[in-house]
Design goal:
mainly alpha; elongated; 11 helices; about 260 residues; two-stranded antiparallel ribbon; 2 domains
């Protein structure tokens, strides 16, 4: 059975084919006979060496490609069904075989290729189960009405102002390559800017999640500042006055 060239496969097939070949060999060939082919200085039989040594890498590629296709596909249900149909029957077959022959495979310990590949199969099942659950949750969200997550730009009444705010932060040294540096050690410095810029934002938006988007946009994690702090306008008048000054042409364009 020819192992397809890696360039012929996408990340999903890159795991399907070698796994199928391993299972075919493992369940057909005599276990003791394979054990006798383990060469001195080698952990695994040369029959299984390729599959074991490349197994983790193939699984990782599968994981990334599967996630990519599930996210980007216009029909993720088809992707999920196709992948489940490829993997689950052969994994089930192997698990049943392993249960019957587990004791005999222990002669390979501590380098048991049968057990090692089983672990990768269980990880594959877990990945499929994860996306099965995710797929079902997405259906429920769609039924209830899906809302696109807000972005920094979407907070502004005029998206061009979002761009200008970023440019001013960068020019004035508050950000470097879009990441917040600040001119003080005050964690509420960016929050002061947010409150000053509220007149430029769409009305009716809740303060905490909106301010949180400001922090996220400039590379600051949720742990950087707590929600309780976000709900209150900072008391540092000097910082607020500075932002009112540098954003004055946006806040009062007629002046």
């Amino acid at each position: 059975m020819r192992i397809k060239d890696i360039n012929e496969l996408d990340g999903i097939d890159e795991w399907i084919y070698p796994l199928r070949q391993f299972i075919d060999i493992a369940t057909r060939y005599d276990i003791k006979g394979i054990f006798n082919t383990v060469r001195p200085g080698h952990e695994y039989s040369m029959i299984f060496e390729y599959y074991v040594n490349s197994g983790r890498n193939c699984f990782d590629h599968f994981k990334k490609e599967f996630e990519k296709q599930m996210i980007e596909s216009t029909n993720p249900k088809y992707v999920l069904v196709r992948v489940k149909n490829e993997f689950l029957p052969m994994i089930k077959q192997y698990k049943q075989w392993f249960e019957r022959n587990k004791k005999e495979t222990e002669i390979f310990e501590p380098y048991n290729p049968y057990g090692y590949m089983l672990e990768l199969m269980i990880s594959t099942e877990a990945e499929l189960e994860h996306f099965q659950t995710l797929s079902e949750n997405i259906k429920q969200v769609v039924k209830k009405g899906f809302k696109k997550p807000k972005t920094f730009e979407s907070l502004f009444r005029d998206k061009d102002n979002a761009r200008k705010v970023k440019e001013i932060f960068e020019i004035r040294g508050y950000t470097i390559n879009g990441k917040w540096q600040g001119l003080t050690n005050d964690k509420t410095e960016l929050l002061s800017a947010y409150y000053v810029l509220i007149p430029l934002l769409k009305s009716g938006q809740k303060i905490t999640p909106t301010a949180r988007i400001f922090y996220s946009e400039f590379g600051l994690s949720d742990e950087f500042i707590n929600d309780r702090t976000l709900r209150k306008r900072p008391k540092n008048i000097e910082i607020s006055n500075e932002f009112e000054d540098i954003f004055s042409h946006l806040l009062n364009p007629s002046k």
